[in-house]
Amino acid sequence: MIGQRYDTSGAHFAFTDRWGGVSAVPYEELNLGGAVGDDPGTVRANRARAAEGLGLDPARVVWMNQVHGADVAEVDGPWATDREIPRVDALVTSRPGLALAVLTADCVPVLLADPVAGVVAAAHAGRPGMVAGVVPAAVEAMRKRGADPARIVARTGPAVCGRCYEVPASMRAEVAAVEPAAYAETSWGTPAVDVAAGVRAQLERLGVRDVADAGVCTLESRDHYSYRRDRTTGRLAGYVWLDPETSRGTTPESCVGKN
């Protein structure tokens, strides 16, 4: 269920695998994506299982309507039930105990925390989002809330690796023109893109020094969902949250998000 978990003083990071849920084929078992064709009640049950496995209240996990862009939403509480979830690819909060979640099935889930400033972020970095700058946008939103890039802890989760992410040569050239570190070649010698390498390079240029990768290729691992491998499939999730006891930088909970 929880494939990787990392804990620092004041903040927590976690990435799921595909097991331990109740979804049927082709979403077996722990599909957390609500827009892939799985039964909504099953997805809710899976989200509750994952949250409870992390010691979180499922009602205090904030999700995104991800669109492969670079927009960031700042949140102080769960989304209001009478409003549509914003179309963004990164979330930032200073609210202790409020978990931010990002869905993936080959894209790079990026989790960020500065426990000293009391601010965390989650970003969805696919190829388009990485090129558009979603990770720098998330770091900038954190900085505006008092984060110092030198203190930020960054964890990237399971994603398709550069050895497997085959693309046309023209697409590789377009991506590399923006982020040279993403230039790659498949294990069989064709053009490829390494989104995770691009994300790491962006973080390093921003001054984020504590960066670690989950070391799992979703296309190669049958324990993880991969859209490129299976097309109709589920979604993994990455979660980041501050300790509930953390008090730095909090404001009265609004139960709404802010774009």
Sum this structure up briefly:
This protein has helices at residues 40-53, 127-132, 134-144, 169-178, 195-205, 227-230, and strands at residues 2-8, 11-16, 61-62, 72-75, 90-93, 99-104, 108-114, 119-125, 153-156, 183-185, 191-193, 210-213, 236-242, 257-258.
What does this protein look like?
The protein is an alpha+beta fold and 259 residues long. It has a single domain (2-76, 85-240), classed as CNF1/YfiH-like putative cysteine hydrolases. The protein is built from 6 helices and 14 strands. The strands form 3 sheets. Strands 12-9-7-8-5-4-14 form a 7-stranded mixed beta sheet. A 5-stranded mixed beta sheet has the order 1-2-13-6-3, with helices on one face. Strand 10 and strand 11 (191-193) form a beta hairpin. Mean pLDDT is 95; it is low at 249-259. This is Purine nucleoside phosphorylase. Its cofactor is Zn(2+); Cu(2+). Homodimer.
